[in-house]
Amino acid sequence: MHTSVNQKVLEKVSKRIAPSWPLKNFVAVNPYAGFTDTPYADTARILGSRAGIGMTMPLAFYLGQVKDGVIQRKDIQKALETARMGNTSVDTILGKAQKIQKGQPQSGSDYNLLDVASRIELKDWNELLIDRVSFWAAAHFDRDVSVWKTKSSGKNLYQAWKLEAQIDRTTEIMGLPGFRSAIKQLPNNPLEFIDAFLSQLGLDEEETEAYLHALLLKVLGWSSYISGLDFHNSLYDGNKSNLTEFLAVLLTWENYFLNHSPQKQEIKAIWYQKWNTGEPLSSQNESLKLALLFQDALDFASQRELKSVFQKQKPLDSKAEAKAQMVFCIDVRSEVYRRNLERVNPQIETVGFAGFFGFPVNYVPLGHEDGKNQCPVLIPSSALVKEACTDQKHAAKKRISDHQIGKTWKKFKSGAITSFGFVSPIGLSFLPKILLNSFHITRPNKDPKQDGIGKWQKKGKMLDLSAISLADKVAMAASSLTGMGIKDNLAPFVLITGHGSSSVNNPHASGLDCGACGGHSGEVNALTAQYVFNDPEVRNKLKEQGINIPEETIFLACLHDTTTDEISFVNDSWVPESRQKELADLKQSLQLASKHTRLERTLRLNIEGKSDEEIENRVKARAEDWAQIRPEWGLAGCNSFIVAPRDRSKGLKLDGKSFLHNYNWKEDPEFKVLEIIMTAPMVVTSWINLQYYASTTDNQRLGAGNKTLHNITSGLGVLEGSSGDLRIGLPLQSVHNGEKFEHLPIRLNVVIEAPIEAINSILEKHDHLRQLFDNEWIYLHCMDEQGKISHTYHKNLQWKAEEKVAAQVVESVL
């Protein structure tokens, strides 16, 4: 192939690898994101063939769901009709599944020369590649964790690997003679090497794509992390060729077996024979076909249950005037709290909105030079916000000093010689702290938000927004209030409630924080909103745009700790003395709602106690237990995204499994707000849902494995044990309770109350959204004005009315 054709293939292959983010801002990602242009079932066949990746559960799991009554016969019948197998009986399908439920899962074919060489020589060269590449990549991408640094810093990935591979004798010791010499002979330009090597293979364009994709899947963890670097750089004009350079690294191994291995002739002969008739896809076995059918049935069962829940909704009484509005993130954990809060105090109106609240800020803590992006990873941050306090100069100096001392102390403990001096005379002195931490009397790790700041400075968090122009503040405020749908009926108090989690000794802690805030707590975004909305200049400018914030309305930032379900006020010093009684009443309602929410969550956490107080204390203790592998369930169970007025879901028990976004199409005449919801929050919720889905169906390849075996590597990810590939996705303990799966692999159900024509118009405009539904990655439903699910989307902008729903669908206004 020509160089230009190779470049086209490289770009296509790179897009097939979904990005992954480091531990400090770990966010849920759809691992199938590179295949949304391909039908779900076809992707299952491709990934199974190229890498042995499973996209369904074992048949025994689905049969268990049938036995438990989760999947009913009518769900299987619907799946058969959808698959155009309506003439096949349910009993026949169940009988087939019973016979082959213990069949072998689909395994990958021999796509690469490494695969063929491993079979011929009876040695797992793939394992050696993974170990050596992972060992090198951990050193190359190290984030100031290692004491000893690699010499290859400053070089691109391919050049750094060449330097490493020429001095690492492990490959030759393990049985690859001349490997270092073969690396040395390669050109220094990665594209030049790739072009020459692919020309030597002689595959056509489609075959080359399959071949290269299978190679990247061998080291999927590092491939995903590097894809994440390119994704991030694409937002901020950085280097976007990292994954191509990494592919060149992997091809150096293929080059060895093609041109330098003692068995190269036999390897080439067998490999070319396998590719003689095109991509060597493994046959789609009967087990996979049945599993795909039963997965459809499980999804239909979930939809049946969801429709049934909304069918029970009755028209609500006219709303009393709200004394306060509380804006939550759409996160499924907020559903439980919102429901309990509305029950405790009906005069508090709750709102669901993306958890960065429309303020995509870059936040710089005291004593730091670089900031962190507090916004969805799909968009760049656009506003600089700095942490502030009453004695900023002193606090910054103290924090820097504390960090420097801590870094020096860490080097002392980790040094090749000094570590011995540390363990013997000093190690025993840590015994009291170990005991105090174990009994939850002290916190094993300092809270980074408060590290280096004195107690007298912690009373109320402060921000410096001087870098944001008035025009930008006004624009963000107007967009935010419009999106929330409250700009015309603001209450005396508006509580902007971000969320975060509390856990210790948990590498994936940021995965429990707010994904809309880039894997960070939403505290900063909420406080930024408080500053902006309470700014008199901003309010005056908003009034010129027709948005009138009443003088008595006070915006306050709150933080919802999803582990303990405590609600704290970030800085309530802005409330005058005359309104302290109102604030106290609000806090009392929040405390009661927190209690009810904690008690409800204990059912999923299997926490028991002699009294409510004891149970609550056990829930709170999980946040400080460094042996706790499940501090909370996060978003496990997420299966639906409801885009409608709160009245449609208010009072319904959705069990913390639904994302709730407030939206009233009658207040959105041009459907611009709906378009934003479908192109941003909806995509994010699909990423979260499919991340949990993948970590459940194949935790070995698309999940992070056993949390108790994790070792942090390079400060950016985890290994399971001491070697192997970087682990992506969620730990097994995030989806499994030790006895059964806490998360059922169900594709997301998006439910929107809006005219079908408006929804179709947005799908026509954004092909990537339409692909999600047309290719059955997620499902789409329309809700009528009575809160009933009335229509379901069926590919190509076609909809089907629900038979048992009597209410009329939302009429078109277009």
Automatic annotation (TrEMBL):
It comes from the Bacteria. It is found in: Cell membrane. It is a peripheral membrane protein. InterPro entries: DabA (IPR018752). One of its GO terms (molecular function) is zinc ion binding. GO terms for cellular component: plasma membrane. It holds the Pfam family DabA. Part of an energy-coupled inorganic carbon pump. Belongs to the inorganic carbon transporter (TC 9.A.2) DabA family. Forms a complex with DabB. This is Probable inorganic carbon transporter subunit DabA. It comes from Algoriphagus kandeliae.
